[in-house]
Design a protein that fits this description.
8 strands, binds 3-methyl-2-oxobutanoic acid, methyltransferase, metal-binding, 2 domains, eight-stranded parallel beta barrel, alpha/beta
Length: 288
């Protein structure tokens, strides 16, 4: 039988597309695999609360990551390191409640899987049972393959995360990974290790675009890039960065699509001036 090419398997009307498709049921990891076969690119965003997640879900974002970037972007910590499993479970449950279509991926925080596969299974089970996520994410390539294997064997879909892994900031800093022949070979080994362990997708963070393109060609699972060039199957951004809420400088790979910090700041100043000047509330905002 002749094999169909990716272009030939793409539905001509785009009805099954992850973004812009007509489906309304919750997206599963099988839909993600089918998108890779069709050669379809897709967007992913982080989300940390029900209301923001509902906006992204209504906009058609097919995969939402309750990232442990919540540490810096939502909970006021310096990094992702202090985030606890209790916090991730609470935030993930809120994002699940606020959405009906997106696949929700719950991040496993630092200290919730490093002790070994059984430790990982216990923690991931909480995210699946208590929060209702459809998949979990954990950091590490070869070093995390045993954890991934047991989770997948137990029926929990896993998104892996290699390249820059922020939970290891104290050891590796925030630096580009995979530069130079040896580091590039290690990244390729990490990518194959997580695929062989059964991960359904892999995040590539802050790696050279050429290397991310090679990993994307070699793997049969989708790659999700952040600071990894244009050739990955999917792209993820931290929502507070891309909508301009994060204060100060954001990484070079971020494109700012809005300036929410300015919009919100101006709106609350207007409210404060109305209150001080006696122009809020007006008759129309009052009950009698
Ligand atoms: O926690 C997070 O937001 C992440 C993304 C940057 C991939 O891991």
């Amino acid at each position: 039988m002749t094999q169909l090419s990716a272009a030939q398997t793409k539905p001509s009307d785009g009805s099954k597309a992850l973004y812009g498709g007509k489906g309304t049921r919750r997206i599963t990891v099988r839909d993600i695999a089918a998108a890779k076969e069709r050669g379809e690119k897709w967007p992913m965003l982080t989300a940390y609360d029900a209301m923001t997640a509902s906006v992204f879900d209504e906009a058609g974002i097919p995969v939402l990551l309750v990232g442990d970037s919540a540490g810096n972007c939502h909970l006021g910590y310096e990094s992702t390191v202090p985030v606890t499993l209790d916090e991730m479970t609470m935030l993930s449950a809120a994002v699940v409640r606020g959405t009906s279509r997106a696949l929700i991926v719950g991040d496993m925080p630092f200290g919730s899987y490093q002790e070994g596969p059984v430790h990982a299974l216990r923690s991931a089970t909480r995210l699946v049972k208590e929060a209702g996520v459809g998949a979990v994410k954990l950091e590490g390539g070869e070093r995390s393959h045993r954890q991934i294997e047991l989770l997948v064997e137990s029926g929990i879909p896993v998104m892996a995360h290699i390249g820059l892994t922020p939970q290891s900031v104290n050891a590796m800093g925030y630096r580009v990974q995979g530069r130079g022949e040896e580091a590039a070979q290690q990244l390729l080994r990490d990518a194959k290790a997580v695929q062989d362990a059964g991960a359904f997708a892999v995040v590539l963070e802050l790696v050279p675009a050429e290397l991310a393109a090679e990993v994307t060609r070699v793997l049969h699972i989708p790659t999700v890039g952040i600071g990894a060039g244009a050739e990955t199957d999917a792209q993820v951004l931290v929502w507070t960065d891309m909508l301009g809420l994060t204060p100060g400088r954001v990484p070079k790979f971020v494109k700012k699509y809005a300036n929410l910090r300015e919009v919100m700041g101006n709106a609350v100043k207007e409210f404060a001036e109305d209150v001080v000047g006696g122009t809020f509330p007006l008759e129309e905002h009052s009950v009698h």
